Amino acid sequence: MKIDIRAPGVPYSPLPDFKVEELRNQPERTIVVLGVPRGGTTMMAGVTQRCGIWLGSGLPGNLEDPDFVKKPMDHMLEAVKQRNAERKVWGWKYPAAVRYLPELHDELRNPHYIIVLRDPLASGLRELRGGDKSLLQALMNKHRLQLQNLQFAKSARAPFLFVSYERAIAHPVKCAEAVARFTGGQVPEDLDELIEFMKPESYKPVNEEIGQNVARDEADDSN
Fold first, then answer.
1. CB neighbours of 180 closer than 8 A, spacing ≥ 6?
2. How far apart, in whole angstroms, are the C-alpha atoms of residue 43 and residue 184?
């Protein structure tokens, strides 16, 4: 797999290249966005939505589907079954999803994982706002969870996209191009809105219309 060392998003998989290409061409895909808390996953979920991937309905500001946040495995398995019945392409975002993904992975239909990596000091400092932990503890928590992400990527037989938060916000259009290529989506037409959304501390209210492009295309294909 050819890697552009300047890109904001870099694909990776323990699978052979031909197998990854085969998975990318399948009409059914499940996209999961993960990373660490306060590590840029909300930004990446917004980009993924704008590339046409449905990440849930009635989402809160952090774009996390409640069915995949601190729920029992039985509940999440039922949610996966329901989403699969409703859509060919769908996904969700949860920063700490790696805590349950090893158990859920085999139940997902053609999973594609987007892992966001951010300067651990920047994400660690954001956690200090609550005042309930030390800087060192926050940094250790970030490294521990990110190591779990990397170990999962090493073992799970699926495509991954590693995204640098810092490079993504510096090169928003290239980031969207990488996400669209990886997910099978489309680069959003309104690039000005994309760039504005990706600016740090500038996330917009949830727009239910965003993330519907792929769903509409599939509906058209089925008629």
1. 51, 52, 186, 187
2. 19
Q: Token pair of 161, please?
A: 């996209």
CB 115 within 8 A of CB 34: yes
Least Cα distance to 56 among 135, 217, 219, 48 occurs for 48
Is-contact 17 1, C-beta < 8 A?
A: yes
Q: Are 219 and 196 in contact (CB under 8 A)?
A: no
* DSSP assignments along 128-163, one per residue: GGG-SS-HHHHHHHHHHHHHHHHHHHHHS-S-EEEE
DSSP collapsed to 3 states, 91-126? EEECCCHHHCHHHHHHHCCCEEEEEEECCHHHHHHH
Written out in words, the top-level CATH class of the domain with range 31-222 is alpha beta
Q: Mean pLDDT per segment of 10 residues, for the chain of length 223 residues?
A: 78 92 92 95 96 95 96 98 97 98 97 95 76 81 94 96 96 96 95 93 65 48 35
Name the residue type at position 187.
Answer: V
Assign 23 to helix, strand or coil. helix
